Amino acid sequence: MNRLPGKAMTSSLSTLCAALLLCAGAAAAAPTLVRDVRVFDGERVHERRSVLFDGGVIVDADYRGAAPKDARVVDGLGRTLLPGLIDAHTHAYRFHELPVLFGVTTQVDMFSDIPTMTATKAAMRAGGNSARADLFSAGTLVTAPGGVGTQFGLAIPTLARAGDAQAFVDARIAEGSDFIKIVLVGARAHTLDLATAKAVIDAAHRRGKLAVVHVNTEQDARAVLEAGADGLTHLFTGTDIDAAGLARLAASRGAFVIPTFTVLESETGVHTDDLLADPAFAGLLDQDMQGLLKARYGAAPRPQRLAAPKALTAALHRAGVAVLAGTDAGNAGTQHGVSMHRELAALVEAGLSPQQALAAATSAPAKAFRLGLRGRIDKGYKADLLLVQGNPAVDIRATRRIVEVWKDGESATPLRDQQRQLVAQRAAAAANALALPPDGRISQFSGAGLASPFGAGWMPSTDSFTGGKSTVTLAPQAALPDGQVPLAVHATVAPGLPYAWAGIAFMPGAQPMQAANLSAATLLRFRVRGDGKQYQVIAMSQGVQAPRTSRFTAGAEWTEVTVPFSELKGLDPAAVTMLGFNAGPQAGEYRFEIADVRLLAQ
């Protein structure tokens, strides 16, 4: 949930929101005619047409008469009207307000919480979802105990054996899953085996549901396609691949593929297309939202690792395989809505024409996921529409020059204006960096407790909220010669989780995990000694789920450790939520002492 700075601002913004939504509703009452506009209908370009829509539905995709009485007329000269974009791979946990603002009117969700999925579907059925993207979801993914998807702190069901596949699939369908998403990652210790994955695919097909699979190797991609998978939800990074052979296999099986270049670029540390350089985009994203987009999983750029997915995408397209645009939004290096515009450009860089890339984000995912009357501009289709300046069928970056978005026939302009105001107000509230102590010291340990000069302070940190069993005890020690009191950290890291940990955390915000602006500092410095084992400094900033990390060794003698923020790639110093010093993930007993922790300007 996004926080606003103070009750007074919350009240005034609530009043503003209500007024804007009333205006939006009033504007939607009349039909809309977009006149003399270039139309990309989901497959082809028509250079000059007029499109009439009313009541959330396209009435005429090639309207030739006078404007209906009371219709709102929108000038289309020099502009292109597109179907609302469909992001074929997202994780819709947060930022539900964003997709529509950037022209993404439908999300295909690959793993989300059931209450969000249920609530969105209810709003769609009631015709009350015009402010948010429609959602078609896998609900809970199919993964092994301890496998991918279990590390986020959500208690989810897992599948241990092939014999339970049908019951597992039936339970997901009962929850409301539109299709079945399977995780098969052979390089990991905790994953489904191929026999179980095939049993799930067969179980889904018996119920008339698509079965799509997350893979991370060429070998697994071939295996699941041969097992009958309907689609691959990711490609994978690498330098060498039998692109033509894998493309032929996918084509022979009638499968579709979602490359998700946006997240692959994050994995490889690549950041060549700065969406935030566009003020129109940056103005719609607050610090929290921008933090996730700025982050990268890869610490150092490795663009050569994108050679395999680029070659495979080109080969898939040549082989007639449906290539779909999906961002994997919700992960570091992505953000809902805005990342689709990078994904479209990446598809063109991989060999699709701009027009083919537009189809990959409109008609192709609508067909592949059986989404009904959407993804096209034609009579009777949903009036989910995007109007842009220029011609994206020639220059794909023209999708970024958004003039207007309509969701269910209602203009999103009031929502976009509202978001800009909210972002500006939040930026003003967070503009000033937190004043650090003159000596930068944030550890004020003593026999009386774990004091700090600001924030919620120091506290134990373990994997218990993700279901782990690790424990930690903290004990102040005798003062050092300079008067600093070290803190002994005794951690027991329990087995059973791939990301187990135990240690101590500093929360710089007024409440735990609330962001604080630490941009007055450029580095973290502390002293440590211990059992000779390796530990991790972890740092988290608002909007980024995965922590940034730096390793250190706690030797027998006191050692000073310096960690520049610049080494914690993707950390936003202006929105730090936590600094931690952890043992793990290997199970075992750990003991170290830490003292004199400082935040300093270099």
Automatic annotation (TrEMBL):
Keyword terms of this UniProt record: Signal
Q: Which GO terms describe its molecular function?
A: hydrolase activity, acting on carbon-nitrogen (but not peptide) bonds
User: Where would one find the signal peptide in this protein?
Assistant: 1-29
Q: Where is the NADH:ubiquinone oxidoreductase intermediate-associated protein domain?
A: 457-569
Tagged with keyword Signal: yes
Amidohydrolase-related domain ranges (all copies): 80-410
Protein name, as recorded: Imidazolonepropionase
Its taxonomic path starts at: Bacteria, Pseudomonadati, Pseudomonadota, Betaproteobacteria, Burkholderiales
